[in-house]
Structure formats: structure tokens, C-alpha cells
Amino acid sequence: MGLFSGSSASSGVRFSSSDSSAPLSVLALPKIDLHLHLDGALRPQTILDLAEKAKVRLPARSVRRLQKHITVSSRCRSLAQFLRCFQVFLPVLKSAEAMERAAYELCEDQARDGVVYFETRFAPILQARPGFPLEASVEAALAGLRRGGRDFGVRWGLILCALRDHPPSTSMATARAAAHARDQGVVGFDIANDERRAAAPHRGAFDYARRHDLPVTVHAGESGPAANIREAITRLNARRIGHGVRVVDDPELLDQIIEKRVTLEMCLTSNLQTRSVRRIQDHPLPRLLAMGAAVTLNTDDPAISRITLSREYKLAAKAFALTGRHFARLYENAVDGAFASASIKRALLLKRPAE
Length: 355
Description:
The protein has 17 helices and eight strands. By secondary structure, it is α/β, with parallel strands linked by helices. The strands form two sheets. The protein has a four-stranded parallel β-sheet, sandwiched between helices. A four-stranded parallel β-sheet has the order 5-6-7-8, sandwiched between helices. The longest helix is centred in the middle third of the chain and has 19 residues, at about 135-150.
């Protein structure tokens, strides 16, 4: 329910040296993105249009000048700095029209990049204002996703995020909104933001999600230690971990992750920009993939990072010498970890890329 249709030289996949667009051979590969923030995927022109309608003051009035304020600079040194980009444009999303447009355009952008299924997420408490409660922002996002799914032939699911730095009461309100829209397209529950804030105080919301059959993913082990991943699995009932790069610091935990098939939603460029890893060569993705962990490759915030999933494929192929077999495994892991119905998963497996 809730899902709507609408390298290396040996890799066998050709890549262009251009960063402006991915070549057809990469675009043609069916892809799945499980970790994709809706508000982190806004088109710059859309931000300008919405700001003009809402009379929101922006630091620039052209796409070219706005770009430097809404994308991560090379001087970024932490997740906290990365998240500051959101403050520029979040005020433009506080209406049903804005949320529906953002969700609709996301479907178009994903379909254009060869994504056959994606799960997008956002924290509705950030859109809430007098006269526009968080439930209304969820309804608007779902309306845009339904329309976009139909028009562009891409399948999707919506995950609602709580925030570590907000009161537990807002997390419970988000969990209730997620449960209410469970049959309309909401497929999961998450908690995000700076890991210096503990997730444990929000446990009541996760217990509520579990009682209402909402699968859970948790941002953990990105800017925080492996202990946060352990907490997410043991106390918050997480089936997936957002990022999870620090899992390699705890061998016992890593064994559990592999044994229990906990899906790791990894994001290469984002992890480099937040300094979760210092160099691409330090990223644990290839090691974890070789060990049999349920690793997936995702974008996180494509507009802020100025990437697409095809470009992440290109980066992975060049950095780790991934072959067609590896891309097929990443795809299978994503199907297995998706918060989708069995019928949707069967349909996605039929699109599995050839090795």
C-alpha cells in the first residue's frame, strides 16, 4: 500500500568525464534511491519562484548567484555546516502549493535520471506554521508524489522524519501523522539531524510507529559514533540505518548488521562533504559490500550536493572499481531493504540491472 506507479575499464559501464550530465549507458541503468531528502532536492529555479510568491527574502535573485548559498562549499567541515544550507530555502516550503510542486518535480527529476523507485523523506514539523499544520504538509507532498508518479512513471514512498533537536512531543506528532497516512503513501518513520543530540528521548514515537506497523530507519553513525547505530537497532527497532559509516568501528556490531540484514543507506558525496569520511578511498562502502552487508547507494540531498544518483554511480565505479555485478548487488540490496509491498518488490526485481 502507499506506493504508486505512474569506471573502471572492466566494469562494462561507460562513463563520461563531464559533470554536467551522465551518459546514456549510466542513465539507462535502473536505479533505486532509498535515502533522499525532499527539501534537499529542490530546484534552484523553484526556490526563486516560490520565494517570489511567498514574499520570502533570499540572499540572491538569480539561479547562478543563489546556487552558492544553497549548495555545500568546499569549506564545509561538518554535518552542522552542511545543514545550514537548508535555512536559506526552508521558509519557501510553508504552503501546500510549494510542497506539492517540490514533490511533483522530484518525480520528474528521478525519472529523468533512470530511477525506477525512490523513497523520499522530510520533517513536516519544519513546514508547519499557523494555518498550515504538519499534517497538511504531508497531504500536499503526497498529492505531488501521486501526480508525479502517474505523469513520469516512477514508483515512490514517503518517509516522515522526526528531529533530534526538537522536543519528543513533535516526534510523537510526526509519528501519528505517519500512521494516519500509512495507506496513502507514507511508508516509514525516521529521525534525523545532528547526532550530538540523543535519539533515546524520542523512543515513544518509535514505539508508536512499531505498534502501527511503520518500518523505521534512523540517521546514525554519520557524524556520531557506532554506539548510535547500536541504539537505533536495539532501542528504536530500526530496520535501516541512514549513512552508518561508523559501523566499521565496532566489529561485533558489524557482525550483527550483516547477520540481521540491516540495510545501510550510504551516500558517498554527502559523507565527503560532511567529513564523515576524509577521502573517498576511506569510505567503507566497498569493504562492507565485499563482506556481504546490505549496502545501498543513495544521494541524500542531491540539490545541495549538486549530484544525481547516476553521478554517484560514476563516482563509485571510478573510486572502487565497481563492476556490473556490484551494481546489481546494490540494486538487489535496495529492493530487499525498501519499505515497499511484496508486489512492488517483485516488479522492481524484474528491472534488476544485468551483471
